[in-house]
Amino acid sequence: MIVFAGAFCAYFIGSGFASGMEIEQFFASWGSQMWLGVLAAFIMLAWAAVSYAVAGSRHAFPSNAAVYHYYCGKWAGAFFNVFAVIFCYAGYIYMCAGAGNVMHQQMGVSVTLGTIIMGVIVISVVSLGLRRIVELLGRLGAIIIALLFLVAVISIFKHGGNLAENYVRMSQNYTQFGFHRSVAPNGFLSGAADVGSVIIWCAAFVAMMAGGTPHKREVRIGMGLGASLICLGFIIVSLALISAADLIGAAPIPTLVLARDIAPALGYVYAFVVVLGVFTSAVPLLWSTASLFAGEGTRKFMALAVGLGLAGLIITLFVPYTTLINYILTIGGYVVYVFWLILVVGDIISMVTKKDFRAKWIPAPKETGEGG
User: Which pTM does this prediction carry?
Assistant: First the structure.
């Protein structure tokens, strides 16, 4: 159960979450409205994650695309399948860009070199396969969450005297601190948009994970626990960022500023943790993108992983990290609202009628005839 929760959290805690930039833009910068954002995030994330786990444990989905067909039918499912490909790939791109910014801010490495290093590592590890990735992410996820919470809690105690005043100031005008804010119209939709990315990203990942293990009940509980931990992280890190807002300013990696403020040496440790956060999210995102076009372990899969991975690195050379994370998560999140509503309506109908009417939408497996 803990491993599954850790794997889910690790999937979520990428460069945006671990660096603090995602939490700054989508929660902390909204001041008093951040609570509405956390509420929206928990409702959407918990419902979707548990739903995926239940569906995955009941059905042996023949492919990633079958997961989207199951929830939305043939045509809408095909649309969201294509959208998931594009969105997963976009997520991989900004994750790698985040790693480059971390290495630059803490170690003086150029953003370009840092991004390339992370991209090469991610491309290489994708060849491990899904089961090994789940085991690895579950262990790394626990480490990242523990250190992130530790830095945030210490910062709250250290700068807690400023929290009340900064909270009011942030609610009135976030720009006075130099903070960044999502392009969402309000705090509620900002929180919903943030988790919208993961809802579409992790659909196939969680469903396949649930279907590939005999521990069905543990997966479901693990998903609920993971969603709760993520939202608790939103709250704790947001309060830490607000309490030290004057210190953080416009820094692209806010939590790294907090770590260095606690102890200079901790800055290097935390930089490593953020890079791990990027790794734990970027790997399954690139895996999900490539696996939608080819079977895992095949020559075609490896060629796609390398080609798409390198193309993404080129894009990061021309678009800033803060711009990537803001527009990718916000715009993509709006599209996911529709997917989530379809998912919820279908779940409710199934619970009321006690019939899994969507099972007929699962396409039959296709023989590819492709060798490894």
Answer: 0.78
